[in-house]
Design brief:
The structure holds two protein chains of two kinds. Chain A has helices at residues 5-30, 45-52, 68-73, 78-85, 119-132, 151-162, 182-185, 188-198, 210-225, 254-261, 265-275, 281-304; strands at residues 60-62, 139-144, 167-173, 202-206, 231-236. By secondary structure, chain A is an alpha/beta fold. In chain A, strands 1-2-3-5-4 form a five-stranded parallel β-sheet, with helices on both faces. Chain B has twelve helices and 14 strands. The chains are: A alpha/beta, B alpha/beta.
Chain lengths: 319, 330
């Protein structure tokens, strides 16, 4: 079924915004404006956008260290996100969290997590709370293929089924844990089979096809909202850049990266949208320009924003 | 409010029941806490009162239990997670230390995690090394957590109600040997502020600061030494973090001597922390003898009954050290 022009525009806007943000984040890091490290999600835009576009504004997400795309798709203000990366007081976390811990509780973003699998047990609790409060909201718990090996994944899957909670576990399989090649031992289809072992539906989908991701996640969201319990979705995707800024990326072959570039999620969607006559190339260029302009404004905003005051260093430890 | 004698484990249970009746956001999650009533029978009968919707029985999944508590707390619930033996808090630590303790700070103050993690610690039941530890000082060390260790039924109920109402993650450490001890407990709900120490016995010759079951043993020791004309002041901090240093400082200024007694192993235990706090305070100038710690030996808890007894301070050990300490003059 053909999508509307409005939806096409919306999905493209969101993906391009993420791309522009991530490219700028990398640039800012190289310029020394962002320190520590960052884990950009270039190449994974369709997985973020396709998943989160199925949610209502009052639904929840839990995100990962590679979570800038999730935050933006959930409606985060790129100015406040960039300010957080720059460690500024006005950032989402007052400069205390940084790239890996961006959260916007009021906006339903329960936070990116620096521990692999850290959000999975928490998602169980979020689901329990939603049921106890008799709410119809759902929660998407993002994690990567690297988390599959982790005990936290196992415990969360069991408890999610036991308590029949409204969670959608979305594993973004980008083929590598850090340098450990998941793809060598398990395909996305095989990872999806673990849903069965735990007692929930598990399905793999092409993570670079934003409409396929949307369709798959929508089913899982409806299931959760109807009170029918959790689901596992594996989005098969790829990160074009290294794991982090300190990753020498010696473990991937150039050929593999090039093969995946041919399946760039934004290019694929633009091609589809063009073929279906939904957007003209001028309209798509306009969308691109706007996104990059928004991000340039965010960069400027972050650069000019104030640092946290030293006197406030102990704020926020206790409620 | 009328009071009557009940057991420590009943006081813990009563705190939870009364809070759950008052506040529908409070719920329990843990292993065997439902129909089984809890490994130490603390939650006996609660499933019948509140049903499986609020008494969540789980498989053996400590990280899952702790994480579920964190997630629910983020959404404004007040979960009470039970970890069956404090030794297994190691498995829950990821969620307690990296998540619960840090989310509020990392999110710039825009979140809170109002959960309680209850767990029985301590030796003396032949549990051996993996079922007998006292790990409270690990959590005293983590910014963002509060740590409470009640020694009596009265304190247990008031502190637990306060912990449940506190908007921070609280580690609430019970002691297996205390569960059946009896004491006067008011029937209705009441709170004891976290961060308030209690002078359990007044005395002029020596200040003992003791935690958990060592409070009881110190009071026994004090009874016996009173017969020898030695008057011990016994202080129970009740909350290890935040610590009521002021009460302890005033006591040490009065007696001039400090003996710290805890079950946890000496090295890296709470005694070291407290010694430094007092040494850095105005009480330092009032000391007539060095600060002394009487603590568990630096060994895993042995199985053999006699060895197990001698692995941690007993009443006689407290008497011997206190008696010698009051004679020391520097």
């Amino acid at each position: 079924m053909k999508i509307t022009k409005k939806l096409a525009k919306n999905l493209l806007q969101q993906m391009v915004l993420i791309r522009a943000f991530e490219e700028q984040a990398d640039k800012s890091y190289i310029e020394g404006k962002v320190h520590g490290t960052i884990h950009v999600s270039i190449g994974q835009e369709a997985s973020s956008v396709g998943s989160i576009c199925t949610l209502n504004p009052d639904d929840y997400i839990l995100s990962t260290h590679r979570g800038h795309g999730h935050s933006l798709a959930k409606g985060a203000d790129p100015k406040l996100m960039m300010a957080e990366l720059y460690g500024k007081e006005i950032g989402y976390c007052r400069g205390r969290g940084g790239s890996m811990h961006i959260a916007d509780i009021a906006g339903g973003n329960l936070g990116a997590n620096g521990v692999v699998g850290g959000g999975n047990p928490m998602a169980v609790g979020v689901g329990i709370a939603l049921k106890m409060k008799k709410k119809s909201q759902v929660v998407i718990c993002f994690f990567g293929d690297g988390a599959f090996a982790n005990g936290a994944f196992h415990e969360s899957m069991q408890l999610a089924v036991l308590f029949n909670i409204p969670v959608i576990f979305i594993c973004e399989n980008n083929q590598y844990a850090m340098s450990f090649p998941t793809g060598d031992s398990k395909t996305s289809e095989q990872l999806a089979e673990s849903g069965d072992h735990y007692g929930m539906p598990g399905v793999a989908v092409d993570g670079n096809d934003v409409l396929a991701v949307r369709k798959t996640v929508q089913k899982a969201v409806h299931r959760a909202r109807n009170g029918d319990g959790p689901s596992l979705v594996i989005t098969n995707t790829y990160r074009r850049r290294a794991h982090s800024r300190s990753d020498r990326d010696t473990y991937r072959k150039k050929k593999e990266i090039e093969e995946w570039e041919k399946r760039d999620p934004i290019n694929l969607f633009q091609k589809y949208v063009s073929e279906e006559g939904l957007l003209t190339s001028e309209e798509m260029d306009e969308i691109k320009q706007q996104a990059y302009s928004t991000i340039e404004n965010s960069r400027k905003f972050a650069d000019e924003a104030a640092e946290p005051a030293l006197e406030t260093i102990e704020d926020g430890v206790y409620a | 409010m009328t009071s009557r004698e009940i057991r420590y484990l009943e006081a813990v249970r009563e705190a939870m029941i009364q809070e759950m009746e008052r506040d529908e956001t409070v719920f329990l999650i843990g292993e065997d806490i439902g129909a089984y009533g809890g490994a130490f029978q603390v939650t006996h009968g609660m499933l019948d009162i509140f049903g499986p919707e609020r008494i969540l029985d789980t498989p053996i999944t400590e990280m899952g239990i702790a994480g579920a508590a964190v997630g629910a707390a983020l959404l404004g619930m007040r979960p009470i997670a039970e970890i069956m033996f404090m030794d297994f808090v190691t498995l829950a630590s990821e969620q307690l230390v990296n998540q619960a303790a840090k989310l509020r700070f990392m999110f710039g103050g825009n979140a809170s995690v109002p959960m309680v993690l209850r767990t029985p610690a301590g030796s003396g039941v032949g549990g051996s090394a993996q079922h007998s530890q006292s790990l409270e000082n690990w959590f005293v060390h983590i910014p963002g957590l509060k740590v409470v260790m009640p020694s009596s039924p009265y304190d247990a109920k008031g502190l637990l109600i306060a912990a449940i109402r506190d908007n921070n993650p609280v580690v609430y450490v019970e002691h297996k040997l205390l569960y059946k001890t009896r004491g006067h407990v008011p029937e209705g709900p009441y709170t004891i502020s976290l961060g308030s120490a209690d002078v359990k016995r007044e005395g002029r010759d020596l200040t003992i600061v003791a935690t958990s079951i060592m409070v009881n043993r110190s009071l026994d020791a004090a009874e016996q030494l009173a017969g020898e004309g030695i008057e011990l002041e016994v202080i129970d901090p009740r909350t290890l973090k935040p610590l009521d240093t002021e009460t302890i400082i005033q006591s040490v200024k009065k007696t001039g001597r400090l003996l710290i007694v805890h079950e946890a192993a000496r090295t890296g235990g709470f005694g070291g922390e407290l010694s430094a706090e007092i040494a850095e305070s105005e009480a330092f100038g009032y000391l007539d003898s060095p600060i002394v710690r009487l603590a568990g030996r630096d060994i895993p808890i042995p199985y053999n009954r006699n060895l197990e007894r001698h692995a941690v301070p007993q009443v006689d050990d407290i008497i011997d050290i206190a008696r010698d300490l009051v004679k020391v003059k520097i």
